[in-house]
Fold:
Amino acid sequence: MKYETTLEQAKKDFNENILPGLEDFIRIDNLSPDFDPEWETNLKAEKAGNHLINWAMKQGVKGMKAELVKEKGRTHLVFIEIDAQGVDKTVLLYGHYDKQPPLGEWEEGLAPTKPVIRNGLLYGRGAADDGYALFAIVESIKLIQSQNGKHGRIVITIESGEESGSPDLVYYLKKLKDRIGDPNLMICMDSGCKDYSAVWLTTSLRGVCAVEVEVECLKESVHSGSGSGIAPDSFTVLRILLDRLDDSKTSKVLAPLSVEIPQYRIEDAQKLAEYEKEKAVTDIVKLSDGVKPLTEDYKEIILNNTWRPTVVVTGMTGFPAAEGAGNVLRAKTKAKLSVRLPPTFNCKESEKVLTEVLSKDPPYNSKVTVKVINSGNGWAAKDMHESLKKSFTASSKFLFGKDYYNCGEGGSIPFIAELGELYPKCEIVVTGILGPGSNAHCLNECLNLDYTTKIIVALAHSIHDFCNN
Structure:
C-alpha cells in the first residue's frame, strides 16, 4: 500500500461519504441506557445502530455482512463480519455508538443533535465519543481493498452501552465466540491523544477501587465546648486513617498498592516528558494561580498519573454547610475515596488491602466501617508486535513528520482488561482521537476532521501491515 494513495482516497471519502453519514448520526439523540430509562421502547438505540449498518453496507466492501444483535433487556451490538482477503488471521475492532446526555446549554449556534462544522471541527454529541469509530474502521478496510491489499478476517463490534459501563459487551462476545473466533489483533478506537500532531497509542489504563469509610465516635453529637478534649473528633480519626493510605505531605501512597513499573514504560514516560514538558500538567489540569504541581519532574508526573496508585477524597457526609455550622462535636464522619490502581494491580486485592488498612486497630477504638462501592482492573499492553511498531512509526512520520508516542491514561476502562482476559493471546492496540478541546462528555463535543482522516490512514496501514507479517 502507498501512503500517498491511501491519504488521497481517505480525504475524498471523508468529505463525500463519511461526513454526511456522521452528520446524520449526530442528529439521532440516542443516549446510553443509564441516561435514558425508555431506551428499550423509544427505539433510538435501534435507529442509530441501523443507521451505522446501512451506511457500512453501502461502502462496497467485499465480503461484508452485518446485523444489529439485540436481546430483550440487553443493550444492542452492531456486529459486522468481513471475509478474509488472502490472509489467515482475524482482526477484532471495537467502538461504541451510545451517547452522553446534552449536559446543558451549548455555545451559541451549536446543539447536541445539530451537526455544525467550524474551523475544521465537527460539533455534535457522539461524533468524537465514539460515533466516528464505525466510519473509521469500515473506511480503513475499504482503503486496503481499494489498493488490492490483503487482509485477514475482520470482525467489527460497536456496542450501545459503553457510557453505562458496557454491561453486555462481554456477554455478547462470549455468545458470538464461534463467529468471532480467536483474534490475532484487537484494536479499540475509544481512547485519546495528547495533541493532534502525532499518532498516539494508549499503553495502559489504571484500575480503580471506590470505598466509603465511616468513623463514629459518639452516639449523638454534643456541644463542642462540652465534648472537645474529652471525646475524639470523628474527623480527626478519619485524618489518622487517611494518613495510613498516603503521605499528606507528598501524596505518595503508603498502603501496599504499588507495582514495579516496566523499564520500557519508564522510557516511554521520559520520551513523552521531553516532548510535552509543562503540557504534561497544563493539558490535564488547570491549577489555580500560584499553585504548583506535586513535582516539576514531568517524567514523574506522567508515571504518577499512569502507573502509580493515588488516593482522592471525592465526597464527605456528616458536615453541615460551613455558613450554617454551629459549635458542635459531630457524632460521625463519612468519606468516599477514589483509589486509582496501577495497571497490573488486581482490583480484588485492593479491596482487601484498603479494608484492612482502614479498619485495623482503629484510633481510640472508634467504630470504623469500610464499605467497598466498586472496583475494576486496569490494563497494560504487552510490548507491541514488531510489525505494528514499524507500521505506526511509518504512519506517524508520513502523516505528521515525527514518531508515534506511547502514553498511559490515568483513568479506567475496565472492559479492556476483560477483553484481555477473554483473548489472552491477542495483540491489543488502544488508540483514538479524543484530544485537547474535543470535550467528550461535556458541552460542545467536537471531532477534529483532519486528524481523524489521518488516523484512518494509520489504522488502514496498521491492519494491512499486521496481517501481512
